[in-house]
Structure formats: structure tokens, C-alpha cells
Amino acid sequence: MSIPATQHAIQIVGVDEIVVNDSKPVDEVGPTQLRLQVEACGICHTDVLTVDGGYPGIVYPRVPGHEVVGRIDALGAGVQQWRVGQRVGVGFLGGSCGHCEFCRRGDLINCKNQVLSGIHYDGGYAEVMIAKDRGLVSIPDDLSAIEAAPLLCAGVTTFNALRKSPALAGELVAIHGLGGLGHLAVQFARYMGFRTVVVARGADKAELAMKLGAHAYIDSEAENAAKALRKMGGASVIVATVSSTAAMAPLIAGLRPHGQLSVVGAGAEPLKVGVGDLIFGERSIIGVNTGSPIEIEDTLGFSQLQNIRAMTEAFPLERVVEAYERMHGNKARFRVVLTMGA
User: Fold this and answer.
1) How many angstroms from the chain centroid is the CA of residue 188?
2) CA atoms of 229 and 331, how far apart (whole Å)
3) Pairwise CA distance, residues 16 & 328, whole Å
4) Is 131 left (phi over 0), alpha (psi -120 to 50) or beta?
5) 127-173 tens-digit pLDDT
6) Residue 136, φ and ψ in degrees, nearest 5
7) Hey, which residues does 19 pair with through a beta bridge?
8) Closest by CA position to 38, among listed 157, 158, 118, 115
9) pTM for this structure?
10) Angstrom distance (rounded) from CA 200 to CA 111
11) How do residues 1-48 score in pLDDT, each as one tens digit?
């Protein structure tokens, strides 16, 4: 597999300054790194942290992208698990250190020295990417690059929120929002055996919610969603996929006793919660931060098994500005994926 000395890559050179670099050098791999020929890369809302300079201390120029699928073309001398030609992916968590307290306890997600793809090092908006061996996942052959890419972040985030929750099969689980995260969460919830209800704004989303597997739909513009959930017996878990914290908070009253609000949507505003809604019913709130490489592989495997797929819009790399604006303007239905023409 021949890789040229330079490549086409999308670089952020300053806050909100997106540049197409047609001659970015292709770097050599370090001892525990691999080089990928990128096939596709999802555009995730978290990429805003790179483009808008929202992550503290980010250094420019930087190539965004953390839903990356490609093939290995070069291995560092210390890499043992992977092989040249293998299809692999890289998610948001680009590789744990393996020696901090949390790594030693098996909590790779909360590694103190975790590197973030597209933030601490160049990501997948490019033809070639250098990745850390600890951050890689194996991609099944029967998943296309476009199908696999959104599962590496949006997929594993919603998958983990559900399977790590206290909900048992048959219990009521509510998915708040039917966007890029929510439309995957509905599918996961249904196939995990939960009684699945979608809470979203507007009657127009009901048909899609039911098509994706929901058992019921609540239009939060037409009725009080928390009351509607209580009439159903209360939700064991509400997975909040929206970015509006003001919309999340009132739903806590729709949880059954010991129910859990699982926050996966990244909102900029503080979450203001009525203490009474927590105390009376002993309810809780938890945040979910994507997943480790092996958890991404679990997500891919479950998605294969149940034929769960993201709804995607694909754009070639050179149309990155248009593609990014589709995501940023909330116009995409539902995940945007860049393709590299491989």
C-alpha cells in the first residue's frame, strides 16, 4: 500500500479558520503508533471544540476528526496487536496511557493522560492519519466505512449509556431527542429489550421514532413530557441526547424511583435541577463520555447483530465546509461523514 509524501488534509489554523492543505506532509510513525489510509471520517458535534477553540490549550494548526475508519499502512516498531492492511477505527478517546491510577483499575475512559483525537493530535479530516495503538478498534469487514464511522463516537456513547444503566429488560426507557445521537439510541434501546419511548419536539417526528423501533412517542410541545412518562409508570432511565440543558431538567420528574437521567448531549449551559426531584424518589444524574476501544468493538458487534445503522449524509473531503455547516447548523439527517475517495 503506497502512501505519497504529502496528502490532502483539512486544518484548523485558528479559531473558525478552516483551510484545505493539499500538501500536508505525511508523518512517519513512532514506536507505538500506526499510520492509517483514511477511508471515511464522521463529522461530530464535538469537533466544534477544535474548530471554535473550545478545548483549553488546543494548539493550531490541527486536523479535526474522531470517527475515523481506515486501513493500516505502517506500524511502529513496538506495535504487536495490529497488522498492515487491517481495517481499523479511531474514536474520540485516542489512547490511554496504561499506567495511571485509573488505567490500572481498568477505567480506561478516565485515564489521566488520555489523548483526544483531533484535539491533542491530528484527526481524520485527512487522507492519512497517525494513531496510537492503544486507541484502535477493529472494524468488521461487512460494515462499510460510512456505516462504521458514526458508531465510533455517537454509537458507543448511546450504547454505553443504555447498557451501563440500571434499567432491566422490559422496563421503560425514554430517549430524549431524535437527532444524531437519539436516532441511534432508539435502535439500541429497542433491541436491548427496553420498552422504548421517544420524547421530542413536534408531532412530525413521531413517524420516524416508531420506524426506528420506539413503542411510543411523546411530543413535548403538545404535552407535559414528565407527566406523560409518569402515566406510563415512570422511566427507569432517560437518555438525554439533546444539547439543551433547560429541556433536560424538567424530565427528571418523569423518572420512577431510583431512576437515572443519563446525559450524553453536550450542552453549554449549566443543568439546573430541582433538588426535590432528586430527593423524593432518590433519582440520580450521570454523564456518559463515549467509550473505550473494546466498548466500541462491542457497539460495532451489537450493531452488526441487530442491523443497527446510522442515517448518514456522505460528502467528499473537498466539500468539508459544506459538510461541517450541515452538522453545525443542525440540518443533517442525521450524521455527516467525509469520504476520502479510497
Assistant:
1) 14
2) 29
3) 12
4) beta
5) 999 999 999 999 999 999 999 999 999 999 999 999 999 999 999 99
6) -85, 150
7) 11
8) 118
9) 0.96
10) 34
11) 567 899 999 999 999 999 999 999 999 999 999 999 999 999 999 999
Euclidean distance between CA atoms 200 and 152, whole angstroms: 24
Map grid coordinates 430524549 to a residue: 176
> Peptide bond preceding 61: is omega within 30 degrees of 0, i.e. cis?
yes
Write the Ramachandran bin of 258: left for phi over 0, alpha for psi from -120 to 50, otherwise beta.
left
Enumerate residues 6+ apart whose C-beta is below 8 A from 177: 199, 200, 240, 241, 242, 265
φ and ψ of 166, to 5 deg? -80, -5
Which residue in this structure is represented by grid cell 468539508? 320
CA–CA separation, 130 vs 121, rounded Å?
Answer: 9
Residue-by-residue DSSP string for 267-289:
-SS-----HHHHHTTT-EEEE--
Dihedral, 328, 320, 15, 49 alpha carbons, nearest 10:
50
- Alpha carbon 7 to chain centroid, angstroms: 26
- Residue in 253, 202, 214, 213 with CA at minimum distance from that of residue 231: 253
| Beta-strand pair 335-339/33-43 | antiparallel
